[in-house]
Every structure is written in C-alpha cells, then in structure tokens.
Write the structure tokens for this entry.
Amino acid sequence: KQWYQRRVAITAGDGETKEKTWISPEERRRQVEEEKARKRKERQEERDNQKKLQTAEQLFQKEWMKPREDLSLTDSKELPLIPPVETSLPVSLFGEVIQISEFFHLFGDHVDLEEEFPNGVQIGVLEKSLINNKQEGMFGDLVNFLLKLCFALLEEEDEEEEKLAQRYNFAYSAPSLDLSQVTMLPSVTWHTAVETKEDDTLPWMGAAQALYFTDYYLGTPLHKIQLDSYTVTEVLRLHLLGAGGRVNGANYYGRGRVNHRGMFSDHDDPCIEIRNRDPSLLRMLTISNVFDLPPASKLTILSTLINEVLTFAQFREIIEEAVDGSRDAKKEWKSFGSEIQKKEKEEAATRYREWIASRIKIKEDKKKKEKSTDCDPALIPLL
C-alpha cells in the first residue's frame, strides 16, 4: 500500500504548487459506508421518536375520550362572564317569553304572521304588553290571533272529518248538542261541579254547555263571534271551558281527528290540562278582564293556546317533515363526510407513492454519482 495517503504535487497552470491527498478506494468506501450507517441510524432514531410520539398521542386521545367527572378535570377554564339579560319581567317567566317568541319565529310563515305583525313578535314589545293593562298592545293582538287560528283549524278539521266520512261511507255529522240541555250558565256552578267531581258526566256536560253557550243565547257559534277588546275575555273563557265538549254521539272526536292528531284524547288537550291544573285562572276570567291578569297568567294563556295549535294535524305534519328533513340532512352530511375522507385517503396514498418514487430516484442518482466519482485503484500509481 505504497500509494496509501501518497502526496502528489500538482502544478497548476498559474505556476503555483498544491498538494492533494489521495485516499484508497477501500478507505473511501469505508467512509461512505460509515456515513450511510450514521444517516441510517439518525433516520431510525427519528422514526422511533416519531413512533413514540404517535403512541403517546394515541394514548392521550384514548384517555381524553373516556368519560370523566367535571370536578376531576385539571385543565378546566372559567366560563366567560355573560352580561345578564335585562328584562322587566321576573326571571322565572323569561323562558316562557322565549318559547312564545320561538313559536312565532318557526311557524310564522305557516300562520301568515306578517299580515297581523309585520315586524314579527318582538320580545321587548311583548314584555311591555304583559306588564301594563292597556287593551291596545301585543298581548291582546296575540290572544285574538291565536283564538282565530284555533277556530280556523277546528273548522278545517270538521271539514276533513266530513270528507273522510264520505270517502269511507260511515255516519258523521258536525259536532252538536241538544240545545235543550243547555240549562245553566257555564260559570261558578260549573267550577263547583268539576271540583266536587260528584258525577263523571258533569265535566263533559259543563264543557258542552260552554261550547254551545253562544248558540243557545246568541244564535251564533263561538268561532263566529267577533273578537275585539270587549269580547275576547268571554270568548277565551268559553273556549277554555268548552275543551272536551266537541262530541258527536258514538263518533267520539271523529276517526280522522283521533288518527291525524296522534290518537288525540281529552288527556292531551292543553285547555283541559290548564283548566284542571289552574281553575283559579278561569275564576279570574269570570269576574275580571284578561288584560288585568298578572304577567304569569297572561303567559299561561298564550302558552296554552300555542300548545293547542301544535296538536292539530297540520302542525304535526310540519314538525314531522322537519324531523325527517333533519334526519336526511344528517345522513347526507355523513355520506358527504365519508366521501371527503375517501378522497383524502386516495390523495394521501398518491402522495405517498410519489414520495416513494422520488426517494428511489434520488437513491439511484446518488449511486450513479458515487460510481462516477470512485477512482480505479490501478490508475492511482500512475497519478
């Protein structure tokens, strides 16, 4: 190995003399192998560290997804300070106000709300009308609007029941009552009959008498009485008292009414519920005006009428269609998300294949370059 680390003087064209150390091919290959081993070791360490990091992240995610008690959390943050809602009503009544506003917001297009309330049902205006006792205000307009809506839905329901009877050929006539049975005013006497519950037929008889009270004394059905600030209190009282009195002999509530309203019965009627739960409200309507009631009672009346509207088939269908639409939207979103994930996986696989091809090409170019730079040992002594 005389040529090992042999110093050869190379004379440059400018007359300067340089010295260059020539290394044997074996030594050069050894250095290249050591460099490759060092890089291989670094890459392996990097992969091991990346794998450890991924394993730690997976364990953290697995631990994070486990249900835990809120008090056991260590990284909880304090909730931001939310400014309180300024309302002139008691805080306990604010939820009912929001519920009423939400009903008109969701079903306003289905009840032609813009014709009666061009600006919609605003919470601030509704609160003011609930506090004061003025007859001109949003509260009175809402009661009139909801009563007209209930009467229109009941009349439409009777028409559908009659069409159903004609289609399936069974006996049907509009709900009626022998007017000779209306012998007492539906007032305190009826309350006493309901509260004592001496006879099971008394509640139904009282409801029927209230329902057909105007037919007997005024010759006009209750739903055709003109509603204004002077008549709305009595019409509202008779409507609440008449709940459960729409009968037609053996055809109790009608087949269509029972089926279309979800097996509807007296136990589902909001008016009957409020009549049994809060009889003092009907007493106040007997001796005072609806506008003189406290805000809590006014909200109870609005909520009761809204709940009654929601029991009709038309609104049940709207709700069912909305539920079906929400379910279909969820399925579509899931399918859309799965398509996105599939596309992302395909793109990731394509990028990985391109990366592998580029790495292979780099290695091949590097090998070609190493082969071109290596010297033949037989030519080194000649240098």
Confidence is low (pLDDT under 50) at residues 1-15, 181-202, 248-253, 376-383. The longest strand covers residues 7-11.
